[in-house]
Amino acid sequence: MKRCALAMHCTPYARSSISSYSWPIKYGARIHYSLRFDKKSLDEYKPLPCPSIDGCRFRAAGSYNGLVCLVEDIDRDGYNCILWNPVINKVIRLPQPSSRFSIAIITVFGFDSKTNDYKVLRFAQADPCIEVEVYSLNANCWTSISTPIAPKYGLFPSYICRYGKCFVNGAIHLLAYDRNGPRSRNLVLAFDVSEQVFTEIPLPECLSYDDLIDAEVLKYGQSSIATVTRKWGHFSLWAMEEYAVATTWTEVWWVMAAEGTVSRVLFVRRDEQVFVPLEGGRIASFDIKTKYLDHIFGVESIGSLEDCLAVDSYVESLVLLDKCCNGRWDVIPIDQDYANSTHEFTFNFFNLKYWG
């Protein structure tokens, strides 16, 4: 079994199209899937077919134990979510959630170790209302979560469509703010996938009441979290050295924007190495200690889709192999020829092997 990391990027292309406005050319993006080894050169392991279902434009919502969760909610005119195992090339389409909200949606993926079940959290907000639902792969259904804590919190608008929602220690983590009281307090909202309850994790004091216009939360190491912020020309990464202990937040990286063109951190590869996107759509590996920036060959994105970039850990597995199209699960066949054909959106993931 290979332990890996997962990523996604977009490349531009143009194709002819017909519309009511008679524009001759429609510019879109091709998002390629591939597997890459976790070596210095990040060589490609193998290309992957792109799941294309009814023209859906998927983005990554999470990855765990060889299973990738893809969701289409960018245009807000529908909601489609699938679970995909790239190794066995099998896809299951999730049933429609019952939530009536179709705006300000966060979809995140996790694993319930107590019941050996894969779950999807859907957090939908339309101020002042909040609706929370959880999908169970074993039960193949959505369940509404009635909890008094969720309505207290709001999610940052710029954070909605990004991948920076991490699953660690059995919990899904979201960057949120407390909507109660005279002054909103920023925090990390942790959702325990097994117990299906929310708890608070405080942010560093300097970020608790700051205007977090551009921020996200990521997995740090094997069992903790980090938060990344970008504001007023500087960029910082704070790591929680001991999980859920507020006093252990430590600033491990601070850089002026002028020192580089880094806009986000996509993934903390090791304690002192991160994946970052650069201006122009390229993705690079950045060593925090040495400040060395190493471009990943053949990987770039168009600017309009940079928020769809994602990198995450990945482990090859046979999950979904026992799921059959017997009326319980909606198993979707992947047409190899169509999956690799030109269409408006495809995806690209890296599969990078940790060698020890």
Automatic annotation (TrEMBL):
Residues 62-319 form the F-box associated beta-propeller type domain. Signal peptide: none annotated. This is F-box associated beta-propeller type 1 domain-containing protein.
